[in-house]
Amino acid sequence: MGNPNNFKRTLLGAACALALAGAGTAHATNWLLLQGTEDPGAAARANVWGFIQADYQKDFSDPSAAGQYVPPKMLGPDLDSQDGFNISRARIGVRGTGFPIDSHINYFLLLEMGNNGITAGNGAFARLTDASVTLNYIPGARIRAGLFKTPGSEEALQGIQTFDYINFSEPANQLLLERLPPRSYTANKPALTEAQLQSGSTLNGFKTPVGAFRDVGAQVFDAFDVGNDWEVSYAAMIGNGNGIEFSNYDGEYDKYLYLSGEKKFGGKGPRAEGLKFFAWGQWGKRLLDNTNDSTANAKLYDRNRAGLGLKYLKKPFRFTAEYITADGMIFAGPDKPSFTFASTNGADAKASGWYVEGGWYIPKTKFELDARYDTVDLFKGRTDDHTFSKWTLGAQYHLNPKTRLTLNYEIRNFECTASTTPCTNANKNLDGVGNKVGVQLTAIF
């Protein structure tokens, strides 16, 4: 991505120019406007909505020669089995204006009650994922405050209920779906046998919820019609950098910038058709103690992310491509809360990844065919450089506009790629990572 400071200045300059242009608010939907804004004077005080995703998945991985398993061979979030049914998401929310004396103020609330990284392992039956208020007074500069999705990657920013696959791409899972570091040193978990897993031993060393692509903070954003069916959007945000947790215990703040331009072809809502180009960046710091010396000596590490890509949708075809870079706080796995792997300190490592995906909506039917290839390079240039890649082949059947069945088959290749002793040892556990199949029912209400 080049110099991150130049990237920030470019995005910020473009955002400021858009705000001054005041070309008028666009009416077509994009992800920035879809989540938490309503048309003035047209919204109810309270619109209740939500969705449920129930699925079955099976992982065909084999244990290592020592009979042990590592997280890529088990199903999340519990990481104790290779097949089973799950309610992966069950969310209910309410949104609207809520203020009859002033329809320029919107609110958005959403509660998660499914079994996933947001709720599992931290003693919570349910977690609040969104709680924001949006002020729509200043032309060209809407203001949102509270807990909400951060502006960034297309895969992360879009509503999960409209996501075309069961599982995230590896770049999104490894680089963007943040697992926040423990407050004090926490030892890594070893590989476990089936008997150990069945007896209650765990591969998960994290106790806090995943970041869920969200933060608590304030954002300035808007979208503009700029002629010839083009819409330009921008967002600038500052947040605690602590995911869906409300504290800011390290005293640092994350900064977010986003810019997109889209040629609108027609339609409304999450399936609006168009060709969109986007770029984004996130810059912050994390406090981490990863030295096993019985001393509280946490230090600040950079956590920077940036990306660019495009998305095309004009039925019967869809195509998306995105490239992501990461500097600092490279996730080494749910079993490694110290962010270290063999000889590598992931807290000061680098990574990158990309994905391409496409879909074909079979004309005059309710069927859709999907395919995605994604790959991520972790701990780049280190003695235990890892590459995780996979193909996902899928089909969807749309029972109606709000209910669908999704079938996915994942072909995975996870390996440590450097010619070093750390990689030889790592591949003893990664050998045997197999394919995965899943079926999911999504119902939106």
Question: What can you tell me about this protein's structure?
Answer:
There is one protein chain. With 445 residues, this protein is mainly beta. It has a single domain (4-444), classed as Porin, CATH 2.40.160.10. It has six helices and 20 strands. The protein has helices at residues 4-21, 31-34, 154-157, 170-176, 194-198, 421-430; strands at 47-59, 68-69, 83-96, 105-112, 127-135, 142-149, 192-193, 214-225, 230-239, 254-266, 273-288, 299-314, 317-327, 340-341, 344-345, 350-361, 367-378, 386-400, 403-416, 436-444. A 16-stranded antiparallel β-barrel has the order 1-3-4-5-6-8-9-10-11-12-13-16-17-18-19-20. It is globular, with a radius of gyration of 22 Å. The two termini are 40 Å apart. Residues 7-28 have low confidence and may be disordered.
Number of domains: 1
Biggest β-sheet: strands ordered side by side in the sheet: 1-3-4-5-6-8-9-10-11-12-13-16-17-18-19-20
CATH classification class: Mainly Beta
From the N-terminal CA to the C-terminal CA, the straight-line distance is: 40 Å
Beta-strand percentage? 35-45%
What structural category characterises the helix and strand content?
Answer: mainly beta
What do the pLDDT scores average to?
91
Helix content: 10-25%
Q: How would you sum up the major sheet?
A: 16 strands, antiparallel, barrel
SSE string:
HHEEEEEEHHEHEEEEEEEEEEEEHE
Fold-level CATH name: Porin
Number of strands: 20
Radius of gyration: 22 Å
Number of helices: 6
CATH architecture: Beta Barrel
